[in-house]
Amino acid sequence: LAETAVGVREMSKQLGRTRVRSHIQNVLIVTKARDNRLIKLTRQLALYLMLKPRKGGRGMVVYVDAQLRTSRRFDAAGIQAEHPELFAPFPQRRASNSSFSSSSSKADNDSISEGQLRYWTAEMCSKSPHLFDFVVTLGGDGTVLFTSWLFQRIVPPVLPFALGSLGFLTNFDFADHESVMDNAMDNGIRVNLRMRFTCTVYRTVGGECTRRAIKKGETGEIMMKNLDKGGWEALESGYPPHDGKVGAKDKEIKCFSTQPVESFEVINDLVVDRGPSPYVSQLELFGDEHHLTTVQGDGLCVATPTGSTAYSLSAGGSLVHPEIPAILLTPICPHTLSFRPMLLPDSMELRVCVPFNSRSTAWASFDGRGRVELKQGDHIKITASRYPFPTVCADSQSTDWFNSISRTLKWNERERQKSFV
Amino acid sequence: LAETAVGVREMSKQLGRTRVRSHIQNVLIVTKARDNRLIKLTRQLALYLMLKPRKGGRGMVVYVDAQLRTSRRFDAAGIQAEHPELFAPFPQRRASNSSFSSSSSKADNDSISEGQLRYWTAEMCSKSPHLFDFVVTLGGDGTVLFTSWLFQRIVPPVLPFALGSLGFLTNFDFADHESVMDNAMDNGIRVNLRMRFTCTVYRTVGGECTRRAIKKGETGEIMMKNLDKGGWEALESGYPPHDGKVGAKDKEIKCFSTQPVESFEVINDLVVDRGPSPYVSQLELFGDEHHLTTVQGDGLCVATPTGSTAYSLSAGGSLVHPEIPAILLTPICPHTLSFRPMLLPDSMELRVCVPFNSRSTAWASFDGRGRVELKQGDHIKITASRYPFPTVCADSQSTDWFNSISRTLKWNERERQKSFV
Amino acid sequence: LAETAVGVREMSKQLGRTRVRSHIQNVLIVTKARDNRLIKLTRQLALYLMLKPRKGGRGMVVYVDAQLRTSRRFDAAGIQAEHPELFAPFPQRRASNSSFSSSSSKADNDSISEGQLRYWTAEMCSKSPHLFDFVVTLGGDGTVLFTSWLFQRIVPPVLPFALGSLGFLTNFDFADHESVMDNAMDNGIRVNLRMRFTCTVYRTVGGECTRRAIKKGETGEIMMKNLDKGGWEALESGYPPHDGKVGAKDKEIKCFSTQPVESFEVINDLVVDRGPSPYVSQLELFGDEHHLTTVQGDGLCVATPTGSTAYSLSAGGSLVHPEIPAILLTPICPHTLSFRPMLLPDSMELRVCVPFNSRSTAWASFDGRGRVELKQGDHIKITASRYPFPTVCADSQSTDWFNSISRTLKWNERERQKSFV
Amino acid sequence: LAETAVGVREMSKQLGRTRVRSHIQNVLIVTKARDNRLIKLTRQLALYLMLKPRKGGRGMVVYVDAQLRTSRRFDAAGIQAEHPELFAPFPQRRASNSSFSSSSSKADNDSISEGQLRYWTAEMCSKSPHLFDFVVTLGGDGTVLFTSWLFQRIVPPVLPFALGSLGFLTNFDFADHESVMDNAMDNGIRVNLRMRFTCTVYRTVGGECTRRAIKKGETGEIMMKNLDKGGWEALESGYPPHDGKVGAKDKEIKCFSTQPVESFEVINDLVVDRGPSPYVSQLELFGDEHHLTTVQGDGLCVATPTGSTAYSLSAGGSLVHPEIPAILLTPICPHTLSFRPMLLPDSMELRVCVPFNSRSTAWASFDGRGRVELKQGDHIKITASRYPFPTVCADSQSTDWFNSISRTLKWNERERQKSFV
């Protein structure tokens, strides 16, 4: 048994560092399409990738933001005038990358007659991710988060270039883009599979249900029964009884049916807070259908290890290496002195509920986006996603993360005393 | 690739919860042999296990502490007088439990002619762990730590009974010992494989070596070369250069050969601190041969997830569920404001070095025992152990841990406002 | 010099514990006028105070909330029917309490012909605080905060009764109200002068001003000049220069005139945060006209020692005894690892500015009330108030505070290990 | 009443910033007498002070460490050879500085015939502090702490010069020593009166005493009676009773007489910890004779505001401006999750006791010095000292402290994102 455990550990380790050598042909470039400076750099990068001949004879197929189609600064017409050969129809191979491909689609067929410069839309990213072998981002960490937002299901490997200072997620310097890209094409890449969460919002429907939940008198734990296939029962808060009053009776509590209404993939965190409400939020937290605790305070941050350097850190969470399979539970300004942050196994299914007796509603945001109001009785289910986010890592990957936290957070730095001569 | 990752996650999850049904025959009881109250309970438990007939016809073989052989309170003679049948030679099966067995030894042969009541010594635990199918502990968490100390290599499954309040590791109440033991025998057990660390102490030997290490001018990183097979080079501390003085030169630094002198398995933590020294300790921390950071303060705690509720918690670390494969790095009263606790993958190999230029030595303790002085140039290597510590878990295991932290730490508890009338 | 310091310390100590014996005649009762349960208790307390004869011969004059004038539950008509003597004109003494009195007003004259049961309005509290010798609150800490809100200038001594659990501010149990009130009348009271802050909101007016501020090149400090009497200049944020680039030039920066628009007295805290904005707030903090630091994060809490058990505590601040003359500066989820909470002397004048280059506006709340938006260029000035909040303390006052934090926060409590047998 | 409070606040504020213009004639220089580099600088400073003529006609009288009398590097003989005029008898004025002088002593008489270069000993500092009008320190913060150690009673104003980086206490750069000294002589100085603590060690004497203490059944509080004038009763620990078991009986507990044995003045902190013991320390904390709490963990730090940037900060305490009259109570790695650091009024008298039932002894250190073992029954009393430590402040004093914490601790600093052009 123990040997198997060692084996699994070894396997996990290897998995995070696989070098993938594949035929990369279709590259998508993500950037802020409204930033003039970035448009120029996008043009420069696109030209480099399209013009430099690769194994297949021609350069690569590059997808840029559809908003650039008519951008004067991007000047697609100018590219066509200067490099007409890029616009000759490009023979598309049938399947892009074995790990990420799926069946061919209408989009594939359309692209057969296109040239090397193409335009992507958000819909293509969400519906046909297999069109792209590779994603390059230009910008800061925000651009990488936006990429995660675009690809709500399968995500191609992402190579993030930083402009200016390197960030947590942007560990390649744009100044080196030519050598970095050439190296990736020639020698393959290593990817980190960063965990994402699938966050599903459940809302109360219909009237009071006939099903019931039991609040155990002795432990205060709430036992669910008759769990619906699709829905789930939101509950009044369950308080641990005081002073070990043994013998308290079990109690049936009313509950409502809920059903899933929308779902988000996050790479950093889900934050549930009181929003503009002046009142403290009260949230009930369940893990694998058991009541874990009641959160009273400004809210709760549920973060991935990747997100451990984001909001969770501000709220007092530990720094967690992205390779660790864990869920970070970090309270935001909690009302108790003893609500120390906690890490749970990534196999656990969490639910954050706004109880029926809450004074106010709560607000959820997903990687800082998509602020959604949760009414009394609503809840969010959080599970490790089936669609991780693969980021290309530098060869010095094992210390990359340390460098990024020292650089960006000044982690454990102190002015060294200068000595006097 | 992503599917494989999901598979591995699932496998890890299952692994931690395997139900083992095996023929348990030889049970070892660990307790504080000097506590009179505990001796009485040990006697009671031993009699229960030996007398109740099991599948094989007779009861079980029970090993108690060799110190009890002559204890008046344990009164072995009284047992023999009352139950002579227990002292009839007991036919020993050849291999105890397939997962934990190894080749037969002299100890095995000796035991052939013994009865059901036998005596264990520390040496038997460390050299012949396969003699025991099962370990029962009576006492608090300290007794479980002591059991880990006894079994420095393979550990049989451990079932910890608490006397009085349940602890983090002692999740079975002695009051229920009969039903708990019967259930384990009849239905098998589930075990948690708790990670341990192997901590190896390296000490400086001989004169200055001819090998060299390079301190990179630009990054301050220390690159090792000519790493010895058995030993390792301890270093002067590597400072990140100030103010981005680019172009600083690489520098050879003197280093000494070190060699391993002793090794400890810990289930909670390794703590390196300044001991009685009034001076701040300065420690250099390396991960996979790269310099990670310099620790200035009272010291450093390197803890397993199991140890996250022990010293690491006092020093400000997060609570970490025991199933998460991670190493906790928690500074003890650090001198910088920004030394937030950190979690590293359990696949990383850590080294904690006392640099040559340190003003004082440091002291290491292993699960709070075995205080060892580390001189300038010495270091300790920490790796995930090949010998995890299997603890029997209750069926409600997933919430066991939450209950223990609420109960023992009052985690996130607050006096609820009593309302009037 | 040193002896003087000792003298001042002693004097401060005495001051916080003066026993005031005064002729208390006019008592104001504050409670939540919409809570039926509280209305009944208010009636009960008012009758007790009015009926029990005091030194002057008759009972006391009691002011209740004007909303109760027509309350069926309070039933003023019923009181009049049962106790007509209470409604005989009551000879009002000329000055209530020497420390808190001021010149007589129209309200005084009106009251000459009234009986013992009178009605207060918010306007009377803010404009004629000298009408009341004493305030009694019924409810929780919130009711005491509301009383502070009512009395924006001089505050009569406040005796807070708790219903149910005692709180931080409500240290008298309503169950004892008869003996507590009698004791206060007969033996006088001791009061704690709790510090309040005066928070003044300044808003940008008019166009760009002709005055200037200087940003020092070398230190990054912003030096103000031509400070207007009434207004103050809000600033672009001042960054400490990087890497000790010595010789950076001073720079004039544009600034706008601001003028005070409203002012609040707070007893707990001023909180400036990002409100519903998804963006991090950026605030510039000045102390005595010098730039102290830039706050990036969810916001900033500026708390009195009394407020150290409220929001500041949730945000990570220390517990501060109410007698200490200090201002607590506690960041809310700051973006840096090193923003440790800080205490400043109560003699310092703080300003929290929303800089012109801030991405978003900020929101201020005063003791959790009066949410006000701060636009770019606006700021809030915080100074120790000239109007402290006198609360009656129990005789065991020195340990009162410890009891309240142990009771309410479970400060430093841990489940003691129960021993077995 | 309120106006008086405002007056006291104002007075305290002024007091901390008094400008003292006095006739400074006798200067003492403190430095590490074993550091060769420092000896040279001491010589340079001494010569400057002795040679430059002041109002009185000649230069100043300078006291250097008696260890330098025979130092080759200091070369007193060389000074005499070059400047024989310095060794002419110097007419000593009768009283140095009115605030710090006392009656004349034998030392005074001795000095009449001496020249301008004199030698100080530790005994002179402790017994005749009035000999010195002014102290100059050369070195780091440690040298200032050493100065506090030398002057256990009255302390002359201290002007600390830093060599290399400025520290918390060393806010003058030695490079400017000529202008700083001239300015101090010509224009007088401003001093901060930094609070010190008087820490008195009490040890158990004799057999069991006949006096008694009462442990209140209902509250767990321990009431002292028959407090000895000189001694004090150390106690068994007092536990708050569980679960509000009302009606528990009062209990007499045995106690021993203790008597004071030694006393230390500290400017930073008193630290009581477990020293080399592997066991957790258990300390009982009393404030003004009431039991406040039980400290379980590595120990307790009791710090002045000046010490808030030293060990207290490492242990998690807040930053406290040196002008605030408060005592910082910061637990060291406490065993409870809820032991938030706390600030108490400087008028409170604290006692830290090692209870009789403690498993191990504890160790106390005073500003990091004088490690003393506390046995079961011993305790330490901490009170604000009658002998504050006056340090000279720069004119920009109000922001001095902020600069020092930003500079030395990188408080609230973050790498600003460099933007890409």
CATH architecture of the largest domain in chain A: Sandwich
The helix count of chain A comes to: 9
The fraction of residues in strands of chain A falls at 25-35%
Largest interface comes to: A-B, 74 and 74 residues
Tell me about this structure.
- Four copies of one chain form a homotetramer.
- With 421 residues, chain A is an alpha+beta fold.
- Chain A has two domains: 174 residues, Rossmann fold (3-Layer(aba) Sandwich); 188 residues, Probable inorganic polyphosphate/atp-NAD kinase, domain 2 (Tumour Suppressor Smad4).
- Helices cover 21% and strands 33% of the residues of chain A.
- Chain A contains nine helices and 25 strands.
- In chain A, the strands form four sheets. In chain A, strands 9, 12, 14, 15, 16, 17, 19, 20, 21, 22, 23 and 24 form a twelve-stranded antiparallel beta sheet that branches.
- The termini of chain A are far apart.
- At the A-B interface, helix 1, strand 17, strand 18, strand 19 and strand 20 of A face helix 1, strand 17, strand 18, strand 19 and strand 20 of B.
- Strand 18 of chain C pairs parallel with strand 20 of chain D, so a sheet runs across the interface.
Summarize the structure.
The structure is a homotetramer of 421-residue chains. The first copy, chain A, has 421 residues and is α+β, with helices and mostly antiparallel strands. The first copy, chain A, contains nine helices and 25 strands.
